[in-house]
């Protein structure tokens, strides 16, 4: 995820920016840069890869007087991770850094290009600085131009901008992406996209609210709200614990990542939906030409999102879809034909087995697509096309938000294909797009449900096993729930299609066998319910997850009433993630780094 830092003061601006960026390293990035305005002279440096490359480039650069500096670590979304695409972005005499996505950048860029502006990068961010300079020509002050620019932007942003026309000032704006400003007794001003760079530098911080914008000078911090009304900063004392700041106050990275699913799914959707269609600017219109079948291939959690996708692709786009475990496909001499689109799914883009299958498919002449979270990863570089999931860095070994964003991308892709193949009516596509917009709200964690799961978790610390069961897309979700529990609690768990239990596993049913039953209201409810009743009749312990009260259950986790099963899917996903987390916590396990597991499996 991108990171922002800013500094206005007399100390070593370069050093402060670089050490601030270092504090943001844990969030992941693929390029970085800084711009410093001192003595009316701009110096800017950018480098791809690790911060050490930027440090090397700035070795000779000295900052020894009052300066305004901004810095950025970039996690590529629009445009490859290259030096040109790294921030800060330059206009004629101003620099900008930005986190988030400018949704209307294409329109703004078109207008600017028509007026003769030359763009150097492929990013959405670059429009901000050019739009600002365009507005500056007719404005009475840099602040007026900045205010106008902010009002013209749509999407999510945290922005810092410095300009020669107002030398000792940093302009800022925040909408949807986090940013704070810090102060200290020495009258310095610090900015960052999260607390950590400010710890040790500032005593008090103000967290900007959506719609806030303004500027800082040596003596002033001016904040305006969305209506243009000046407001007082609300200062809070800054925490002194870096690790807990990195976890945003959560106990574990996994917990933080479960809670941030709402935000990252919003990022996944951003700029990709209109009222009536799904847009993937990154895909060539002819990618699906001549394609009769889709083969999805992945490992672990990514395999589960692929399984979920197979239901959506066949249902929405009526295209034959198969799903493969990468380590199996590799050695079974599969039939790969060129009318098949080969899709690999990977959070890291580096998983050895999945990467090998991608190579196999390419060798066999198939068109390839990767759904991935890491730009410039091996798979993204190798595949013909890629869609980035925009989940940001996932630190917990047990994957959560990566899965959530993969399923979101697949849902969008199924509608994209449905439109191309004319398999859903435009009304149905419009309706589904509306549902997609409701996903971020459906995964928001309520205190009540988390507390309920925490209390229930004490009942599930032993027994001889867990069966997570569900039908249709709730079957892959059951598999994913069981995998989460296995990984971090070390308890035996299996995911099973509800209707399959009677073909064998039901022999295990007794009070020591716990069934976690996914019972959505809007998909095969009666059928799923009778499968659970069969287990209940054999005295298995049942925990039902459903919006409908189920009287045969020992425990019941209520979910909200939704209008569609996919929204139920996303809410239940959060429930199974939290259940595993709380069981693991009670067992005293290392939630973020479970035994025997690694985040990226780059060996066979
Ligand atoms: C489970 C988990 C693993 C990964 C698998 C594939 O929580 O994280 O099962 O999903 O190792 O990794 P990627 O998606 O990076 O290819």
Please provide a written account of the structure.
The protein has 604 residues and is an alpha/beta fold. The chain folds into 3 domains: 244 residues, Aminohydrolase, N-terminal nucleophile (Ntn) domain (Glutamine Phosphoribosylpyrophosphate, subunit 1, domain 1, 4-Layer Sandwich), CATH 3.60.20; 188 residues, Rossmann fold, CATH 3.40.50.10490; 142 residues, Rossmann fold, CATH 3.40.50. The protein has 19 helices and 25 strands. The strands form 4 sheets. Strands 3-2-4-1-10-9-11-15 form an 8-stranded antiparallel beta sheet, covered by helices on one side. A hairpin with a 5-residue loop joins strand 13 and strand 14. Helix 13 runs antiparallel to helix 14. The radius of gyration is 25 Å and the shape is globular. The relative contact order is 0.08. The mean pLDDT is 94. The structure holds fructose -6-phosphate.
Main traits of this protein?
7-stranded antiparallel β-sheet, binds fructose -6-phosphate, 604 residues, Glutamine Phosphoribosylpyrophosphate, subunit 1, domain 1, 3 domains, Rossmann fold, 8-stranded antiparallel β-sheet, 35% helix, alpha/beta, single chain, globular
């Amino acid at each position: 995820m991108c990171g922002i830092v800013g500094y206005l003061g007399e100390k070593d601006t370069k050093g402060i920016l670089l050490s601030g960026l270092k504090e943001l390293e844990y969030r992941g990035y693929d390029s970085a840069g800084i711009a410093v305005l001192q003595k009316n002279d701009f110096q800017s440096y950018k480098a791809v890869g690790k911060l050490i490359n930027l440090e090397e480039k700035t070795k000779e650069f000295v900052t020894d007087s009052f300066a305004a500096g901004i810095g950025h670590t970039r996690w590529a979304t629009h445009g490859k991770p290259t030096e040109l695409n790294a921030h800060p972005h330059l206009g004629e005499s101003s620099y900008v850094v930005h986190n988030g996505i400018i949704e209307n950048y294409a329109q703004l860029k078109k207008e600017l290009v028509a007026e003769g502006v030359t763009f150097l990068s492929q990013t959405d961010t670059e429009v901000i600085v050019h739009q600002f300079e365009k507005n500056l020509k007719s404005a009475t002050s840099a602040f007026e131009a900045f205010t106008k620019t902010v009002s013209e932007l749509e999407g999510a942003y945290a922005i810092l901008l410095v300009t020669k026309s107002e030398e000792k000032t940093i302009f800022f704006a925040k909408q949807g992406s986090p940013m704070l400003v810090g102060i200290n007794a020495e009258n310095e001003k610090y900015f960052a996209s999260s607390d950590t760079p400010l710890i040790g530098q500032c005593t008090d911080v103000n967290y900007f609210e959506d719609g806030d914008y303004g500027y800082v000078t040596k003596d002033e911090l001016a904040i305006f709200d969305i209506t243009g009304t000046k407001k007082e900063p609300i200062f809070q004392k800054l925490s002194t614990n870096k690790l807990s700041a990195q976890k945003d106050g959560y106990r574990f990275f996994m917990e933080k990542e479960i809670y941030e699913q709402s935000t990252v799914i919003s990022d996944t959707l951003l700029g990709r939906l209109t009222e009536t269609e799904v847009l993937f600017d990154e895909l060539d219109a002819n990618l699906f030409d001549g394609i009769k079948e889709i083969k999805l291939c992945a490992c672990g959690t990514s395999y589960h999102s692929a399984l979920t996708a197979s239901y959506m692709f066949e249902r929405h786009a009526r295209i034959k879809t198969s799903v493969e475990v990468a380590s199996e496909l590799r050695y079974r001499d599969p039939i790969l034909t060129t009318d098949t689109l080969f899709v690999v799914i990977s959070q890291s883009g580096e998983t050895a087995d999945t990467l090998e299958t991608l190579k196999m498919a390419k060798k066999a002449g198939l068109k390839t697509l990767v759904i991935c979270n890491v730009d410039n990863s091996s798979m993204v570089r190798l595949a013909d096309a890629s869609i980035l999931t925009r989940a940001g860095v996932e630190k917990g070994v047990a994957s959560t938000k990566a899965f959530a964003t993969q399923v979101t991308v697949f849902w969008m892709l199924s509608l994209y294909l449905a439109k191309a193949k004319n398999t859903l009516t435009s009304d149905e596509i419009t309706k589904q797009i509306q549902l997609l917009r409701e996903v971020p709200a459906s995964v928001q964690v309520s205190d009540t449900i988390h507390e309920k799961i925490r209390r229930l978790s004490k009942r599930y610390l032993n027994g001889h096993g867990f069966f997570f069961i569900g039908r249709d897309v709730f079957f892959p979700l059951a598999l994913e729930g069981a995998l989460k529990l296995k990984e971090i609690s070390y308890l035996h768990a299996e995911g099973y299609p509800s209707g399959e239990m009677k073909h064998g596993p039901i022999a295990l049913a007794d009070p020591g066998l716990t069934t976690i039953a996914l019972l959505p209201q809007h998909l095969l409810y009666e059928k799923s319910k009778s499968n659970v009743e069969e287990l209940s009749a054999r005295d298995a312990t049942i925990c039902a997850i459903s919006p409908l009260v189920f009287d045969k259950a020992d425990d019941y986790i209520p979910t909200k009433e939704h209008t569609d099963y996919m929204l139920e899917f996303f809410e239940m996903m959060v429930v199974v993630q939290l259940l595993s987390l709380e069981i693991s916590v009670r067992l005293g396990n290392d939630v973020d780094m479970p035994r025997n597991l690694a985040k990226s499996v780059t060996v066979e």
